[in-house]
Amino acid sequence: MWLWAALSATAACYRIDGTRARSAARALLGDFDGLLISDRYSVYDFIDPDRRQVCHGHLARNFQAFAERPGAAGRHGQTIKQTLDEVMRADTQARADAITIAWHSGPGGDIHDRLMDAVEAGERSHTPDLARLCATVLDIWPTLWNFTEHPDAEATNNRAERALRHAVLWRKTSNATQTDAGERFVERMLSIRETCRLNNQPLHGYLVEIHNARLTGAPVPTPLPDAA
Question: pTM of the predicted model, to two decimals?
Answer without folding.
Answer: 0.86
